[in-house]
């Protein structure tokens, strides 16, 4: 997800169904924060590219394109793709718009066109940050090598001088980290889409039903609820056995004793919340119910600890302590939610207690998927969801603690019992 998908059309990215567009007040909030961060590190010009990863482009321009964002003055937007020669006439957040291809071609030389524009506008020899040159702590967290295309970078470097270029990932990442109220509302809308998809799962699932049928009904529910990008991760398997994680059509039928863990991240104009829901066909194993209850208790403990001014280490400790008298080890699984690839990224192999994340202060209006899980002693060392009944929801940090954006019941979905 969050790779560039399709092309810029005559109307740009479609307006969200059942949700308002972002306001110019939200645009101005973002731009002011970006300029504050640029000034802090002495950056005069910020460039964001849309290839392979459109998150940063959507944050600054609310559309896909090259954004040239100066510390002072008006930004410039370079649109590319099918009908982009017409799309430049459609009102956007950025008034200064050009097309990278005269006739709206889908083969776009972003690097060459950007380099030529920088030279024509005398935007060379400035201290320039390019977002996505490498991964960051708060964005591009799953792309440690960054997402910028090498040839695009070469064109820009030849125009402005490689010595003038620094990595801008942290600038955009820190701006994106604290959400505006309109962003939180958009994320809540994507949670509602995910919950409707889970309702479709429970309604369609039964003994003997093909997994592909249930998977398809979940995707259809997302379309009906207004998502413009669909996502279901489907992890089926027997209790104690390794499971494959399907993000495409799964094979086989639902049989008694089958457990399915799901993670859903439908998008509305790039914004991805996440919901995680386990399901079992037939009566659940007693151990599975025990693990599920501990996971939920850890979720509550983590949510209560997520208060502004506290440290992430406090959350990790609260989650670990929620194991109670059950054997095993409780892990915090948490990462940022927003325009995708958000941080911080806290996963079991990330050693959060030993990392700098533990010392980071918790901030209000930050959003995360929280889904703690218990690793039981009988699980193999190379844990592959063998005992997975993980439940999770997208949450926002408020002044009084973490708050769920979802409303569904916290339960292990049981069908065919």
Q: Could you explain how this protein is built, in words?
A:
With 417 residues, the protein is α+β, with helices and mostly antiparallel strands. It folds into two domains: 24-177, Creatinase/prolidase N-terminal domain (Creatine Amidinohydrolase, Chain A, domain 1), CATH 3.40.350.10; 181-415, Creatine Amidinohydrolase. Helices cover 31% and strands 18% of the residues. The protein is built from ten helices and 19 strands. It has helices spanning 24-40, 55-61, 84-87, 110-120, 150-160, 169-177, 181-204, 211-225, 286-305, 312-321, and strands at residues 45-48, 66-70, 76-79, 96-99, 128-130, 165-167, 233-238, 258-264, 267-268, 271-272, 275-281, 329-331, 334-336, 345-346, 367-370, 373-375, 393-398, 401-404, 413-415. The protein has a six-stranded mixed beta sheet with strand order 4-3-2-1-5-6, with helices on both faces. Strands 14-13-15-17-18 form a five-stranded antiparallel beta sheet, with helices on both faces. Strands 7-8-11-19 form a four-stranded mixed beta sheet. α4 (110-120) runs parallel beside α5 (150-160) and α7 (181-204) packs antiparallel against α8 (211-225).
């Amino acid at each position: 997800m969050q790779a560039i998908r399709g092309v810029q059309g005559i109307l740009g990215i479609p307006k969200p169904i059942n949700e308002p567009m972002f306001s110019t007040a939200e645009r101005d909030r973002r731009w002011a924060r970006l300029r504050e961060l640029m000034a802090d590190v002495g950056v005069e010009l910020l460039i964001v590219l849309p290839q392979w990863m459109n998150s940063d482009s959507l944050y600054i321009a609310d559309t896909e394109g090259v954004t040239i964002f100066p510390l002072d003055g008006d930004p410039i937007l370079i649109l590319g793709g099918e009908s982009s020669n017409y799309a430049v006439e459609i009102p956007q957040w950025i008034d200064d718009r050009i097309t990278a291809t005269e006739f709206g071609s889908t083969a776009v030389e972003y690097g060459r066109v950007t380099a030529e524009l920088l030279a024509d506008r005398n935007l060379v020899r400035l201290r320039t940050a390019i977002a996505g040159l490498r991964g960051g702590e708060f964005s591009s967290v799953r792309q440690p090598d960054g997402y910028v295309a090498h040839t695009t970078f070469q064109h820009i470097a030849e125009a402005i001088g490689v010595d003038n270029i620094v990595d801008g990932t942290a600038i955009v990442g820190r701006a994106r980290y604290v959400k505006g109220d309109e962003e939180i509302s958009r994320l809540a809308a994507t949670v509602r889409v995910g919950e409707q998809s889970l309702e479709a799962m429970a309604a369609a699932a039964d003994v003997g039903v093909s997994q592909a049928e249930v998977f398809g009904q979940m995707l259809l529910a997302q379309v009906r609820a207004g998502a413009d990008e669909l996502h279901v991760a489907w992890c089926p398997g027997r209790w104690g056995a390794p499971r494959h994680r399907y993000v495409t059509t799964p094979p086989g039928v639902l049989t008694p004793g089958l457990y399915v863990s799901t993670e859903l991240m439908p998008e509305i104009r790039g914004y991805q919340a996440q919901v995680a829901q386990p399901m079992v066909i037939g009566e659940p194993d007693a151990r599975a119910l025990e693990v599920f209850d501990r996971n939920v208790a850890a979720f509550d403990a983590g949510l209560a600890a997520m208060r502004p001014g506290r440290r992430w280490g406090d959350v990790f400790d609260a989650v670990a302590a929620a194991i109670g008298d059950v054997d095993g080890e409780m892990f915090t699984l948490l990462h940022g939610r927003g325009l995708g690839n958000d941080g911080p990224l806290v996963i079991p192999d990330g050693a959060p207690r030993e990392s700098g994340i533990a010392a980071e202060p918790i901030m209000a209006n930050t959003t995360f998927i929280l889904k703690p899980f218990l690793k039981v002693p009988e699980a193999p060392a190379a844990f592959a969801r063998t005992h997975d009944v993980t439940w999770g929801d997208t949450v926002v940090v408020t002044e009084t603690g973490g708050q769920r954006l979802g409303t569904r019941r916290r339960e292990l979905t049981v069908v065919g019992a």
